[in-house]
Structures are given as C-alpha cells and as structure tokens.
Design brief:
CATH superfamily: Zn peptidases
Number of helices: 10
Pfam families: Peptidase_M14 (PF00246)
Family: Belongs to the peptidase M14 family.
Number of domains: 1
Domain Peptidase M14: 28-306
Number of strands: 10
CATH topology: Aminopeptidase
Organism: Vibrio japonicus
Distance between the termini: 55 Å
Strand content: 15-25%
Protein name: M14 family metallocarboxypeptidase
Length: 306
C-alpha cells in the first residue's frame, strides 16, 4: 500500500520551495507560553529553572528551559529527562512536567536531575514532528546539527556537571504517524511511502549498542500498572523492528542521530505512549510517562545497593 503526498513530485526530493510550501501550510494550534511555560515557572519554587537557549524562529516566543534539582551534589549520579523532542507528542511534554511536579523532589535525594520538558516548542504549537525547516530533531543529534532544537539540547548536556547515569526520553507513537508524518517523510526524501501499523499500547526503545534488558523490563512493569503494553504485530515486530522482549524494541541510537544517544549513560530508554487508544485518557498518558520514570529510577536504585 502506498500513498501520495500533496507537496512535491513523487520520486523527487524536496527542494527549498517544497519545504517552504510545507511550512506555509502549518498553523499555530496551541500556545507554548500559555500551556507549558507557566508550569515550568511554577516549579521554580522547588527547583532551579534555567533557560538553556532559544529558537531563532522567534526567540521571545520559544525560550528553552530546563528544571534542575537544587543543591547539586557531584557525588550523586545525574538523571536526564527529555520531553517534546517531537513537539506534537503531548504526553512527552506534560509527562515530564508531571514527573517534576510529583516525583522529582523524592528522587533528588538520590540523583541530580535535569528535566528538559519541551525541546521543540515550535513543534508543540503547530503539532508537528519536524521543525520549521522540515527537519526531524530526533534524527539530528550529531555534530554541527542542522536542527536548533537538537543543537541547543546537546549544549545543555555538555554543560551538565557530573556523570549522566540515566537518560529517559519521553515520546509517543500516534495514529498521525501513519496518516501524516511518515507520508510527509517519504515525500520529502523522494521515496515511496509504504504503510505501516501503529502499535496499540505502550512500548520502549532501547539502544542496540547498550540494550539493558532488565532495565527496560522494569520500565515496562511499572507502566503496565497504568496502561496497556503494545503487543507485537503478525511478524513479531513493533513499528518494523523485532520485539526483543515484552513491549521492547531496540534502535542504534547514535547511528540514527536520536536523542536517546545524546549521552553516554549506562541506563537509557525512549518511551512510546499510545495516546489515540480508546482505553486511555490524556492524563493517563501523562501518568504512563511518570510511571516509566519511576520504574527506571527505582530499578537503578536497586542496582546501587550494596
């Protein structure tokens, strides 16, 4: 099965004109400054809120913030939480913020924590996977990145004082991945779109080079208390990748330029919530992201016990 996309010529990569045509059809659908920034600022009473950059598309509209645990202690390992690398994935943003609001104070007893809740605020506002240049930030975590969102986050990571032991990158897999984003990607790159299947439920993506299966299993077990875990398709795969255990697939994070490869952490996972299920509410999706983080950090704490 294949489909054409309304922008560009099938079989030909987009040039600047097609990228501009794509950007011109985007619209603001929700406001970062009203829905996200106030939640970040409200956390400044408990934690250190720092601006680590801004997007040049509109620096005043799109400042980039992180939330850090106070009383930074170099004897503690560091936990990095990233959300909204794909701005349209709503629970990635609001799940990160809910974790900071409800759980971060507790885990700050054991870890230094840095939360970057909305890496791609333009994508958040326009409900898009790409940035305004039709570039996917989550394929752009490498030197001299063409994506400002990725480059700013990499600078933040470089500035962190201490060893990053854990990185949890919060994402969603949505029905629009097949109805809009993958067809657009095929059109942009001048290749045929081959339809895939959206998994019904939560899953995680580990790193092929450092899979940490017990860690992934702990995340899945924690999330299963909140929402259902995605089963494999008829090929025993999830989104075209072999399922390595219940609810888990692996990607080569660094090779693909994924946010999950932005650190040299020992324990890393990318969460994938399914918000379009009739079985879940928006808040349950946020809760699933929090549960993933709780499961991840509780597991790491058990590994550090004598």
């Amino acid at each position: 099965m294949h489909s054409s996309y309304p922008i560009g010529t099938p079989g030909e990569k987009w040039g600047e004109a097609q990228r501009l045509e794509w950007r011109d059809q985007t619209t603001i659908k929700r406001e970062y400054q009203k829905e996200v920034v106030p939640k970040i600022n409200a956390l400044s009473e408990q934690f250190d809120v720092e601006q680590y950059g801004a997007l040049s598309y509109d620096a005043e509209r799109y400042p980039l913030f992180c939330i850090k645990s106070t009383n930074w202690d170099r004897t503690k390992p560091v936990v990095l939480v990233t959300g909204g690398v794909h701005g349209y994935e709503t629970s990635g943003v609001h799940g990160a913020l809910k974790f900071a609001e409800t759980q971060m104070a507790h885990y700050s007893k054991y870890f230094n924590i840095v939360v970057a809740p909305c890496v791609s605020p333009w994508g958040y506002e326009t409900i898009n996977r790409w940035n305004p240049l039709a570039i996917d930030p989550n394929r752009s975590f490498y030197a001299n990145s063409p994506a400002e969102e990725s480059a700013n986050l990499m600078k933040l990571v470089e500035s962190i004082d201490g060893n990053i032991l854990v990185h949890v990158d919060l994402h969603e897999t949505t029905d629009t991945d097949e109805s809009e984003f993958r067809p657009a990607l095929a059109a942009r790159d001048g290749v045929e779109y081959i339809a895939g299947t959206i998994p019904d439920g939560f899953y995680t993506v580990g790193d092929t080079e450092n899979p940490q299966p017990d860690f992934q299993a702990a995340v899945i077990a924690s999330v299963s208390k909140v929402t259902h875990i995605a089963p494999p398709d008829e090929n025993d795969e999830i989104i075209g990748s072999p399922m390595t255990q219940h609810g888990v697939i692996n990607y080569p994070m660094v090779k693909l330029g994924l946010c999950g490869g932005v650190t040299d952490c020992q324990y890393g996972t990318t969460t994938e919530v399914y918000p379009d299920s009739a079985k879940v509410t928006d808040e349950e999706c946020n809760d699933a992201q929090v549960a993933a983080l709780v499961g991840a950090l509780d597991y790491v704490l058990t590994q550090s016990q004598p």
